[in-house]
Structure formats: structure tokens, C-alpha cells
């Protein structure tokens, strides 16, 4: 179900102090939206340029541990990878029964990357929108997709508070979507680990076939994505739907696209199996979370080597050549 402004009452935050921990991408937007909704907001941040920005915006800005201790409702808006340590050392000690911890992504909570004291409610309010748009859409009263859930309801009113926060940040203007940390995390990981890798492989296979035919790197890459055309198509897909937007293409294009779908259905059986395995064996089983946590506990950052390896294929090399020749167009 979806929840709109009328379903969410800000009164569940009456008399409560809300601490926004992290005045970054989401933090600066959510803090300002909540304040403009009439809620008492303080900010918790390390004492650096983010803290300066918060003070300049007029927020009482405290060290993270102090803000967490002082507040009744704590919004965790720091990067996911630093949350386990920061929660354990600076936030959990300041949480007491009847406080509410609000997460903006489900991963750490669902996979047990941090714990919070008994009696503390845990809810999720997870915008599917970058911070700048969370702010601008609030100002223009346009909603945006946002997942909400009560993850631990010690008080009996956790979901009401989640909806109040969602309304305070402007998310119920368009309808907040009931979800769970498990669903939010799994969908996010699935998009990253199945959909995008599948698309990268389609682009790579296409590049190989087109190169074999003797077509130039420039022509292939501009046609495939460097022109930005696919971004425009996806924009229309979001607005009009996958098939509805197809009517904007030429008749030749429509005839070709629609004829191609059944031909490629053959590979989709195999892809479905692979996707099922990614979802069940890697994501929902917690295997990926364990693997990522192990990778992060080592001394060396594993990502640079993985990026180097991925970047050494024929397609990324062709992309570099084209980019270096056509800098002014890109
Ligand atoms: P940011 O990367 O913008 O967070 C930066 C903030 O975190 C700054 O205030 C920074 O302060 C603080 N921070 C960074 N490292 C540390 C640290 N080690 N200790 C204490 N504070 C630290 O985060 P986002 O806004 O992108 O993400 C916040 C949450 O929102 C995450 O859970 C994310 O998954 C979720 N989310 C993000 C979206 C997005 O569009 N980015 C969309 C929806 C949800 P300083 O460096 O001064 O310490």
C-alpha cells in the first residue's frame, strides 16, 4: 500500500527532538524539510565543513554522540559503510527505550551490521531520490518515491513515527510505499548485481559483434550510449512506460524492436535462472553481505583492482580512445 499526507500525522513528532546525523547528501535536505515542517531538528556531525554548512543553515550542530543522546528520534544519514562503527561507538550508547532510530537504507539493519539497545524502535524511511531533489521537490510540494517500514516496534507506534518522518521530509506528498528493510536492500542489491551486470554484458557483446563487422569505435559507442540517447529513452520509460514510449520511435524502429523481443526470449530463460541464483543464493541468504563485510575488514581496498580489471576489456579501452579524441563533444 501507499501512504499519503492524509494518512500521516506530524503529531507523532510533537514535543520530540529529531537529530539528523550527517549533514551530507540526504542529511542537509531532510534536516531542512523537517524544520520547514515545524519539527525541532538538531544536527550531529564531525566538526568540519559539513558541520559549518549545518551551522550556517541555522541548525544547532553537535558532536554525533551528543546529538544522538539529546534526541528522541535519530535519523542515520551517514554513508552505509561507516554506519556499523559509528552506531556502535557513538549512537547506540545514547539511545534509550522509547527513542526511535530511522534508517534511510535497509542493508545494515537487515543484515545485522549493527545492533541498538532493547526498547528502541527502528524504522526505515528510504527516499528513492538524491538529496538535492528531496529538497527541491519538498519546496515545490511534488512528492517522490520513498520506502517506509517499521522494523522493530517496541513502542507500538513505530510505523506512525515512520509516516510522520516521511511526511516531514515531503515524501507522502506523492505517496510513500510500504516496504521493509529486507525488500529495500534486496531490490537495491539485485539492481546492482543482476540488472546492471546484465546490461554491461549486453553492451560488451554488442560491441564485439559490431567491431567484427568492421564498424568504427566512434560510430558504435555514440550509437550505443555516448550520445546520451539511452538516458533520454529511460527518462521516457519512467514517464510513459516501457511499451508506451515505444510509440515515440519511428515505425521502422518499432517494427524492429517488437520483432526482436521474441528472438531474444531464448536467452531470457538462462538469464532468469542466473537472476534467481543472484537473488536467493547471494543476496537473500546473506552471503553477499558476509563477503562484502569480509572484504571491508581487510587492510587493502579491493575496489581499485576490480575496477582496473573491469576497465581493461576491449569496450572500456575503446571508450577511452574515443573520449581522448572527442573531448570537446563529451
Ligand atoms: P553522504 O555520503 O552524503 O554522507 C555524508 C555525511 O556523512 C556527512 O555529514 C559526513 O560528515 C558524514 N560522515 C562520513 N563519514 C563519516 C564518519 N566516518 N563518521 C561520521 N560521519 C561521517 O551520505 P548520503 O546522504 O548519500 O547517505 C546517507 C544515507 O541515506 C545512507 O544510508 C544512504 O544509503 C541513504 N540514501 C542515500 C541516497 C542518496 O541519494 N545519496 C538516496 C536514498 C538513501 P563528515 O565527513 O563531516 O564527517
Q: What does this 3D model show about the protein?
A:
- With 330 residues, the chain is of the alpha/beta class.
- The chain has two domains: 2-179, 3-Layer(aba) Sandwich (Rossmann fold), CATH 3.40.50.720; 184-329, no CATH class.
- The chain has 14 helices and nine strands.
- It has helices spanning 25-36, 49-56, 64-70, 83-91, 107-110, 131-139, 158-168, 181-212, 217-226, 229-240, 251-284, 287-297, 303-310, 314-325, and strands spanning 2-3, 17-21, 40-44, 60-62, 73-76, 100-103, 121-127, 146-152, 176-178.
- A nine-stranded mixed β-sheet has the order 1-9-8-7-6-5-2-3-4, sandwiched between helices.
- It is globular and about 70 Å long.
- NADPH dihydro-nicotinamide-adenine-dinucleotide phosphate is lined by residues 22-27, 45-46, 48, 50, 77-80, 82, 86, 104-105, 126-127, 130-131.
